[in-house]
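Model: You mentioned two targets. I'll fold them one after the other.
Researcher: Yes, keep them separate.
Model: Target one:
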Amino acid sequence: MIYSVSGTLALVEQNHVVIECGGIGYSVKTSMTTISKLPAAGEKVTLYTHLAVKEDAIDLFGFYDEAERSMFKLLIGVSGVGPKGAVSVLSSLTPERFALAVASSDTKAIRAPGIGPKTAERIVLELRDKVSKEQAASGITGVELPVPAPGLQANAAEAISALEVLGYARAEAANAVASLDNSLSVEELIKQGLKVLAGKV
């Protein structure tokens, strides 16, 4: 598997970029979320990748950070959701917003071109179920939340659930949230929690 591609950004089009690396131009399909974060053509860039192999095609998908790639892998693991549909969702939702939408069963937020109401419901159902199974397998039934103030505990709980949706264990998600400012919004707790879990804080 190609973990990442680093090189010069040669071309940027809708949902597609070309990165020149070692004399080879790699065609990489990506989301509009990633494209919006890229530097100008001619600059150096690194994308975290996923190689999709089918009978009639081999496509390389690239993402600005590992959180977005993780979201992509979760989506293509849902029955009825292919790479194109996953990129469609990624183009309208950041990893933080996607995790929050699944954790709160907000199917309307997940809808995108190629992703209708039934598919959005399936995404929520399958990913929330996956989180529950992971909790059962790890023997974790509850983790004390580090939020003492009324009204803020719900934010921490939602952030922890959202981090679980992105594939983190409940214990490590809770520890990450515990290290953050309790007054932050749910989305900011998720965003900062991802940085803590990635070791960037």
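Model: Target two:
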Amino acid sequence: MSFLEHLEELRWRIIYSLIGIVVGTIIAWIFVDFLIDGLLLLPAKQAHLHLQNLKPFGQLFLYFQVAIIVGFILSIPNFFYQMWKFISPALKSNERRYVTSIVFFSTFCFFCGVVFAYFVMLPLTLKFAAQFGSPSIENNFAIDEYFSIILSVILGAGLVFELPMLSFFLSKIGIITAGLMKKYRRHAIIVIMILAAVLTPGTDPVSQVILAVPLVFLYEISIFVAKISRKKSE
């Protein structure tokens, strides 16, 4: 394929990805009441948080925000599929057969991160936020700030759980090796701590540590994945 043909292929893959997000957003909007009251507000109820809306039409924009982000999450399989289909011409013929498996495991890793964030990170983080401080000060949280924390933690955890698949791809094309990752393990841990601080909202040390621990574990898994991937390539 020529350079312009690559650009045309990329354009269509982006269009297909956007179509998937639109479809996912429509599905999310149909169930938006359940998503907000039954799922996203549940951690706040369990942590006994007091939420309030401080902006005119704040809840309307909040509903749109939730529908779009959940729509993106629902379209993740299609997004990964379009991404790997764009990359597949650069792969060998025997490697293209694994595109479906790669899409499945990429989606699986992402949703593992989402589940980990929802059931582990968010309850501990919100409980810490609700109980910290003087008892003389009442903790009332703005609803937009709450959902910003919820959605950023969920998306951030989903993305960082893609580390093993990213390691698999980079080792396949020869950019990294298991030996290189072992050599710079200490540097990687420092980067992981910085990344955990960036991906978690505010300066909450609890959520940073909770995210950093599985990141270190995922890094070790990535070393193993890179080693296996390299052996198969050889």
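Researcher: Noted. Anything on target two?
Model: Strands lie at 50-52, 140-142.
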